[in-house]
Design goal:
about 170 residues, alpha/beta, Double Stranded RNA Binding Domain, 5-stranded mixed beta sheet, 3 helices, 5 strands, flat
Length: about 170
C-alpha cells in the first residue's frame, strides 16, 4: 500500500522531471555546438562618431565565443563570414527636465549596423539586415564624453542581438 508521503514524493519527482521538458542545452538551431566556425570582420564605420568599429568587433567575437554554438576563426578559413558596416549613430531625446520642457535630461543613443553573414562554401546568405543597438545616457556638461563612454554598452547590445540572430538562425 502506498502511503500519502510516498505518493506525494512520486508526484513531486514526476513534476520535477517533466517541468524542464521545454529546455534545451546547446544550440537551438539543430547544429552541434562548435560544429561550425565563424569569422567576424571589422565593420567599417560610416557614422560621424569615431572609434566604434573596434568595440563592436570585439564584443561580437566575445559574445559568439561565450555562446559556444560557433568556433571563432581568425585565419580566413571559417564556415561563416560575418561582415557589415556601422551606418547610423543617433542621439534621441528621451526625457526632459521637470521644470524646463526644452532641456533634455536623458538621451536614447542608437547605433545601427547593416550586418551580413554568408556561408563561405556555398555563398548562401544567412543574414542580411539592419540591427539597432540602444543605450541610455544622461545629459551632462560633457555630452561628447558621455557618448564615448556609451560605446562599449552599444557594442554589447549590438553583439547580443547579432549573435542571437546567427545562433537561432534556421539554416
Amino acid at each position: 500500500m502506498i502511503t500519502l508521503s510516498r505518493l506525494s514524493l512520486v508526484l513531486a519527482l514526476g513534476a520535477l522531471l517533466t517541468g524542464c521538458a521545454g529546455y534545451q542545452l546547446g544550440p537551438t538551431n539543430g547544429t552541434p555546438a562548435g560544429g561550425r566556425s565563424v569569422e567576424v570582420a571589422l565593420f567599417p564605420n560610416r557614422t560621424l562618431e569615431p572609434r566604434l568599429s573596434e568595440p563592436v568587433a570585439q564584443a561580437l567575437r566575445k559574445r559568439l565565443q561565450q555562446d559556444g554554438t560557433f568556433r571563432l576563426a581568425t585565419q580566413g578559413d571559417a564556415d561563416v563570414l560575418v561582415t557589415g558596416e556601422l551606418t547610423r549613430f543617433e542621439r534621441v531625446p528621451l526625457s526632459f527636465q521637470r521644470t524646463d520642457i526644452i532641456t533634455t535630461r536623458d538621451y536614447d543613443v542608437q547605433l545601427t549596423a547593416r550586418v551580413h553573414a554568408i556561408e563561405r562554401g556555398s555563398g548562401k546568405v544567412l543574414l542580411d539586415r539592419d540591427v539597432v543597438a540602444r543605450t541610455t545616457i544622461q545629459n551632462t556638461a560633457d555630452l561628447g564624453s558621455a557618448e564615448r563612454q556609451s560605446a562599449p554598452l552599444l557594442a554589447e547590445d549590438l553583439a547580443r542581438k547579432v549573435a542571437a540572430l546567427l545562433v537561432d538562425g534556421s539554416w
